[in-house]
Amino acid sequence: MAKGYKIKVLLPYFWCYLRNTDFIPEFKKIKKGIDQANEIIKEIALEENCFYFKDEEMYSPEYFVDIVHFSKVGMRKFAQGIAEYIKNNWAAME
Asked: Over 70: is that where the pLDDT of 58 sits?
């Protein structure tokens, strides 16, 4: 739909915070699935000429309430990152 209306799409990276995946085997599976999903998101962004947002600073325990859900501070950080990304790339998005 976005392509039909010539709207640029922003695809965000899927973050998780796993300190040590060795002590719980299921965490390795979760991390593997998240990594695979992120590779697919990145491929789609490249193939479809979408914007791709990944903030390396999101890897901090203070930004998560568990391994995949952002805390209130994490949501604020994520929103600020997206806003900054859009601001810096606005001309290319039009």
From this structure: yes
